[in-house]
Queue: 2 jobs
Job 1
Amino acid sequence: MPAQWFFVPYVRRDTGKTGLDRSRYCMVDDFTQRIHADGGDWSEFECGGGPGTSFIAGAAGVKVGGVTQATLDAITAAAQTSPIPTSLLELSTSLSVLTTPQRNTLQKALANSLGYSDQEVTDWLAGATLASKTYGQLLDFLATRWYTPVYDPAGSQVGYQGVTYPGVIACDGRTVASTGAVSQRLSPPPSSPAAVAARIPST
Amino acid sequence: MAFPVNGVLDNFNRANATPMGGSWSGKIRSADIDASINGNVAHANAAGNASAVWSPAVADDQEAYATVVTADVSDTLEVWVRLTSAGGAAPNGYRILFTDNAAGSDTLQLYRVNGGVFTQLGSTFTGTIASAQKIGIDAVGTTISAYSTTAACGRRGSRRPMRRGHRGRWRSSRPRTTASTTSAAAHPSRLPSRCSSRLSTRSPSCK
């Protein structure tokens, strides 16, 4: 059964009966029942987001395994989803298996969109090229930054899919004027990509 | 992995009371109401989210669980561990959230809570949580796991670990789901440091 990595947004969900709960979840959870029906599973790690990114509620790297291709296609089609080439399934796989355009996409469209600047990527590479790194090393780099979420009751933020929330959960380093809550940059993240990968079948 | 590891801390078999008394005190959030004992189960006697916090706090490795006695659609029950900043508007910790839905559609979700903002960890498990089932959460080192005692809620058979996390307590909403008893305790390597429970008008009763 196919497997694939994705980078996806966190999405807001109000779960509280009294509106007190301000929750966010990894978008792939919208596909959980379908994934389980296929006999597969998924797991995620938080990464990126931050000032200047489009991931107001944060982003996650997700591996989905043991599912049909149709399910992977459905996830790929979801808004703000960045599918990773299927040649990258194992953490030990060298990025040299990718074409140059694919590597450029990882750096520009993925790393930059998660909030990592070209200079940060250059500093991380330390003179080496992306082709000399493994996929696991790239995930480690992408997971070096994340932000604690804060709730902004002002409701002026435009978030996921262009929706203006009546109140938004933000992971972009902001200070919420009305509450004083601060979304702080943290490192390292709460879970490691290696641990995530170990739980999901690769094929 | 065995679940639960620790014995029950409170079976709520005593006179009706609000708040519950004993080692339960305080609330998870300032907006909560006090949880009650009513008919030898814990639940919310009035509208709102009812909660209570077990004290004194113990070690960082914790286990907390509750037994669902009865539940109505839309009832919720939460069990927390590693609770900090309780009683204010922005608590921290980890919780398992049980939501009673239509038949076969009950859900269990594991959350990390930072300053009152909830981040779901991993996927939602959907199935049936029946009366007398236990749901719980444990935090050992940097691993947070959520469990239920039957196969009904997960795909992997009984005792389904949902994984990940940090600290604990408990809460529920809606009268008629009865969940009761939070366990905790006395196991050297897995002491609940603070268990709290929260019940609301829609809270399941707990034992």
Job 2
Amino acid sequence: MTTASIQHRDLAEDIRIVTLSGRLDMLGMDEVALRFTSLTAAVPRRIMVDLTGVSFLASIGIRSIIESARALERRGGRMVLLLGDNEAVKTTLGTTGIASVIPFAADEAEARHLLAA
Amino acid sequence: MTVSPSQTDSGSRAVDPVEFALTDGAWAVRAASQWLVAAGRSLGVPPQPLHRLEVCLNELLANVIEHGGERARSLPVRLDLRSGSVAGPISPDGRASRNVLQGEATLTLSDGGIRFDPALHTPAGAPARLADARPGGLGLVMVRQLSDAFSHRRERDQNVVTVRVRWPKPTAGLHGG
């Protein structure tokens, strides 16, 4: 049973959008964590992580995002989280204080703007 | 998953407690989560507070699996959910002065792991730089932030953790302060 999924597309030479969907709990992260780490560690160094289709986000998913963002930063890259109107994910992420270090964007245009800053 | 609620002596509504073996790890957490959502819906807990409670349950079970030791993983975890009404300030931070009737859901989780009192856990503040962000320890921070009350007691060699979430009831408020 697949409960989480991951896809990606490259928007430009150095901008990649990685889309996570479904339940990012322990089971869901078992399914997508390795692929997520690998996609965010590849050549494009500006990564937009689209969480608009995530129905449930546990700390194990947030840990994975933080670890990838830190690795990206060490390589001179940057990550932005695209949340859209996903209030459940916004509420969960809001408890952790990570908005101060990984910016949130409401839409793709804002995410591009933040990645270019 | 079908769960049938019943009325308790104290006037609250409850569902039959369930037990989950954590030997299945992530699958057990998922099954517990599915039970909670079905039970919460049957008790009339609205989606937003039910989601907060579901995140808390996931984090607490992950904590038991990760830190509870072999005994915690070999003994079943017991879950109990009930709902009722309380009078109190409408906002979780207590800023509202007028008392109103609130809905309340209480989840009690009992595990046989090593003694663990979340009150002794000091949550890290928000990081100023990404390099300072601590990937670990987020689970309890999330439970504290998403619940309206969170307590621990040690009973019969078990950790008994209680998490409460509240929400404004759409009925007329009580007169007060």
